Amino acid sequence: MGAVLSLDTLLAQRRLWRGQPRGQAQATREPTGHAALDAALPAGGWPEAALTELLLPADGVGELSLLLPTLARLSRAGRDIAWVDPPYRPYAPALARAGIDLARLHIVDTGGRQSAWALEQCLRSQACGAVLGWPQRADDKTLRRLQVAAEAGQAMGFLFRPLSAARNPSPAALRLQFESGGLRVLKCRGSHPPALPVPWAPALRH
């Protein structure tokens, strides 16, 4: 019979993992800028150094306005932001009005042929505070590589994907599904998703 070791010994030797009680997640430094969404997320905002998936029924449902407060804050703090293969040309005047420093915004156009590779490089570079991507194809292996790259580069990755992707599992730390009048949290690392959608409406255009 093997020797009996104490819990303290196992922990000291890193042979036992110590879990954290639910509800004690550290406060994030990256609030979303939307109070109702922050209240619904376990860390009080976007998961840091991780992927977030935004699942859309169609383009143009206000998905970019959800990120504008975060992008503005990051750019004002001197952090670069990369957009990889956006489906439409970004409208610079609107981004500037939202408070984004355009000098910190970088558009990467691969023609859709190397989106996953470009996303991984941007996330891993340690040069970007946030990386936005519109990958045409993203299987489980690709998503795992992107999640690891976000952790290595300490960057927030935001992937815009079709609603049909919700049927497949994902290693992303957070998955948000856009619905009429709200956001449904499908997955959030550190807690169970709330039962009801989070009230949210995109900012009105002027």
Automatic annotation (TrEMBL):
<dbReference type="InterPro" id="IPR017166">
    <property type="entry name" value="UCP037290"/>
</dbReference>
<protein>
    <recommendedName>
        <fullName>DNA lesion error-prone repair protein ImuA</fullName>
    </recommendedName>
</protein>
<dbReference type="InterPro" id="IPR050356">
    <property type="entry name" value="SulA_CellDiv_inhibitor"/>
</dbReference>
<dbReference type="InterPro" id="IPR047610">
    <property type="entry name" value="ImuA_translesion"/>
</dbReference>
<dbReference type="InterPro" id="IPR027417">
    <property type="entry name" value="P-loop_NTPase"/>
</dbReference>
<keyword id="KW-0227">DNA damage</keyword>
